[in-house]
Design brief:
With 110 residues, the chain is mostly helical. 85% of the residues lie in helices and 0% in strands. Helix 1 packs antiparallel against helix 2, helix 1 packs antiparallel against helix 4 and helix 4 runs antiparallel to helix 5.
């Protein structure tokens, strides 16, 4: 799953697939908790944020960083280190939002 996503980020001609592949990666981690209601809530959040995730990757060109962060999250998950995985995930999400907001502010002149 992660390798498919990483490969799709190499070129910008498959931007439409980025969101689905990103969700496939993240949901495979969340699915292990066996909490279908929480997974459904996470999917709803993902669906609402998807355009911003793709916009961030496309405009800010942070694909290398996103791949590294995904690998780190997966590493912690494989180690069954939930605390470290959650911290890495929180940082991953926060950085994406912050860097996109900074990019948009810089382009608008504010």
């Amino acid at each position: 799953t992660l390798s498919q996503y990483s490969e799709s980020l190499v070129t910008e001609d498959n931007v439409e697939a980025w969101g689905a592949l990103n969700w496939k990666f993240h949901s495979s981690l969340y699915d292990a908790a066996n909490r279908p209601r929480i997974l459904a809530m996470a999917e709803g959040i993902h669906n609402n944020a998807d355009r911003y995730v793709r916009l961030h990757l496309f405009l800010v060109h942070e694909t290398t960083r996103a791949n590294e962060e995904h690998r780190q999250i997966l590493h912690y998950a494989r180690e069954r280190n939930a605390d470290a995985a959650c911290r890495a995930l929180e940082e991953h999400i926060a950085y994406a939002g912050k860097s996109l907001a900074e990019y948009l502010r810089s382009r608008s002149g504010n």
